[in-house]
Amino acid sequence: MVIFIKINELNSVLVKNIANFFTEQGKTKVVLGLSGGIDSALVLSLLTEAIGKSNVTAIFMPNKAITSDKSGFDAKKLAVLLAVKFFVVEIDGILASFSKLPWIPSDIAKANLNARTRALVLYNYANSTECLVAGTGNKSEFYMGYFTKYGDAAADFFPIGNLLKTQVRALSEYRGIPHEFLEKAPSAELWKGQEDEKEMGLTYAELDELLPLILEGKKIPAGKEKIGEKIKKQIKETEHKRQNPKIIPLSST
């Protein structure tokens, strides 16, 4: 596990490695979904430095029944501030087409349609412009399974996938991300009033304190065993979300 003592070291390594990734892939352009939240804000900021703002496109994809006006305002403000190409694509019409299915989708299936529809939009743009799709998930979300399979998990690379949520906040502050992003309660906005920490049943501070210990097989501090067990259980139950689809072997061994 690499430990960065200084935030400027972390910043430099990320920017350099993002730039190197594009060189390795033989690509120069990228698209990402800009939600109005801190994760996508940080990813956008890093990308503009790593490959140049003229090579970055951000797309805000609201579901008008759920997405707050504040999210749209903040997303546009950041895109203008960083001078990147910016589109707004309302996904309501696409979502409405699913009402014609010969079954009634469950509430969670409806919620996940938001993320999966956004992935369709991003890859449609990427295919049309020969660019890469940047994911905006972080390490805390990945290990809690707090993402949608083939939704926000659909990407060509994850610039902040090795950062805990608390590190995302620290790096965002270092990079001068506007304060409204830092102060906003984290939410995937898959339904009205959704908040990450309420849904998970613990704060990111609690999660990020124990997650590295759990992943390294170290002892949980006294008095925090209950939270530790909760995290371990969630990691185990969501392992399938972090794996590629299983290819059934032809061998009997």
Care to describe what's here?
Helix 1 (7-25) packs across helix 2. With 253 residues, the protein is an alpha/beta fold. It has helices at residues 7-25, 38-51, 69-82, 92-96, 107-129, 139-144, 165-174, 179-183, 196-200, 204-215, 225-237; strands at residues 30-33, 56-60, 85-88, 132-134. A 4-stranded parallel sheet has the order 3-2-1-4, with helices on both faces. The model has no long low-confidence stretch (mean pLDDT 94). It is globular, with a radius of gyration of 19 Å. The chain is built from 11 helices and 4 strands.
> What class do helices, strands and sheet pairing give?
alpha/beta
Provide the gyration radius in Å.
19 Å
CATH class: Alpha Beta
Shape, per Cα inertia axes: globular
Keywords:
4 strands, globular, alpha/beta, 11 helices, Rossmann fold, 253 residues, single chain
List the helices and strands and how they pair.
Blueprint: H1 7-25, E1 30-33, H2 38-51, E2 56-60, H3 69-82, E3 85-88, H4 92-96, H5 107-129, E4 132-134, H6 139-144, H7 165-174, H8 179-183, H9 196-200, H10 204-215, H11 225-237
Parallel strand pairs: 1-2, 1-4, 2-3
Give a quick precis of the structure.
The protein is of the alpha/beta class and 253 residues long. The chain contains 11 helices and 4 strands.
